[in-house]
Amino acid sequence: MNAFDVPGRGNDWLAGMINDDRANARFQVDRTVFTGEDVLAIERERIFGQCWLYLAHTSEVLTPGSYVSRDVAGRPLLLTRDKEGELHVFYNTCTHRGAKVCRERRGNGGGFVCPYHAWAFNVKGELVNMPGRDALPPEANDNGELDLMRVEQFDVFKGFIFVCFSKKTEPLVDYLAGAGDYLAYVADQGPNGMEIIGGAQEYSADANWKMLTENSVDGYHGAPTHSTYFDYLRDRDGGPKKVREVGTVGWVKNLGNGHAVSESIGALPWGRPYARWVPGWGEKSRAEVEALEKEIMNRLGPERGKVVAQGDRNMIIFPNLVINDIMAVTVRTYYPVAPGRMNINSWTLAPTGESEASRDRRMRNFVEFLGPAGFATPDDVEMLESAQKGYAAGGWNDCSRGMRTNNPSKTEELQLRTFWRRWRQVMAARDKSELQGP
Length: 438
Ligand code: FES
Ligand SMILES: [Fe+2]
Prior knowledge:
Number of helices: 13
CATH superfamily of the largest domain: Naphthalene 1,2-dioxygenase Alpha Subunit, Chain A, domain 1
CATH topology of the largest domain: Naphthalene 1,2-dioxygenase Alpha Subunit, Chain A, domain 1
Largest sheet: 7 strands, antiparallel
Bound molecules: FE2/S2 (inorganic) cluster, fe (ii) ion
Number of domains: 2
Shape: globular
C-alpha cells in the first residue's frame, strides 16, 4: 500500500473512476473526479507534484537581471536570468523565515531584498547580505543552504519553460513525447522567434480544472456553443463554410503521455496572422499576409511550411497546458483552488518583430474569440459551470465518440480519452500499455 491508498479502497477506487470498455466501445468517467475533495488531494500530490508544468516563456526574461514571479500549482516561484544569460528557477520564499523575497510580478534589477528582515539575494539566488551578520557564525552559509531554494527540475523546450517538483520524473523532452513536434510548429512561425505580448489574462471559473483540459481540445462543442462566432465570420467574410462543417474538417491525435492535438490544415474560416489571409481583413492587407506565408514556406520548406502557416492546432500537454494556435496563439494554464473552482492564466504569443499591422490583426483576432470577453471564453465558462452544477446529480460522463475508428475526426473524443487514460495511469499507478488505442 502506498501513501495514497485509502484503507479498504487501495488504488482501485481511482482506477475504477474510468470505465474504458473497448470491447463495447464505451468510455465513461465517474463524475466524482470533478467533485471529490479526496480526488483533488491526490491530484495535488501525484499530478501537480510529479508532472512537468508550464512556468513561462523565455521572452519574458530576455535581458540579464530580468525576473518573473509566478505561482505554479500553488507554489510561489521566481524565474531569473543572470548576467551570463543563464536561467534560474527558485522558490520565492526567503530562507530565513519564509516571506516572499520578490513581491513584483516582473522586473529587472540586481537581486531581491526580503521585505521582512532585509536578507538580500542576487539573481543567482545567493545570499549576499543580511543586517546584523555577526549574530550568525561566519560559516553559516558555507554550504549554500541559506541561498534561495532551487526548484527540483526545470527545462526549456523551444522557448517554453517548464518546472517539475519531483526529481524522479523523466526529462522534459521525453515527457513531451509527440507534443514536442507541435510546440515546434508554434515556435517556428516567426523568423526571429516568438514572444509573449501584453500581460497575463487572469480569470476564474466555478468548474473543475480538468473540464478546461477537455473543453480546449473538444471540437464537438464548437458549432453548438460558439455558433455566434461562426455566424459572425460568415457574415463578415461571406464565408463559404457552413457552421456545422467546421468541426468535421481535420483530425485528432494522441501525442503520447496524455498529450493530444486537434488539428486541420487550411480548412477553418478565420484568418491566421502568420499566415492565412481572409477577406474580412481588407484587400490592403493581402500582400503582407501572403508575403509572410511565402517567408515561412521558404524558410521551412513547402511541407513543414504549410503545416506551420496553414495549420490550426488546439493542443493539450498533460495535465494543464493548453496551446491554441488558431486565429491567434494563446498559452493557457489553470489550477484548482477547490474541486469546483479553478484559476486560469492565459497569455498571447506572437512572432518577435511582427509588423504593427499584423500585430493589430492578431490582437483583434485574439480579443474577438479567445479573450475573456470574446466570443468563445464566456460561452465555454458558462458550459463548464453548468456541467459542474450538473455533477451534483452524480452518474457518469460519456466520452465514447469515435471508439471504433482509427481515424477520428475533431468531433470525436479520442483526445479526451487520451487525457483520461493518462490521468488514470498517474493517479492509480496503472500500466503504460493502457494509454494506447482509440
Ligand atoms: S523572512 Fe526574509 S529576511 Fe526574514
Ligand atoms: Fe469553446
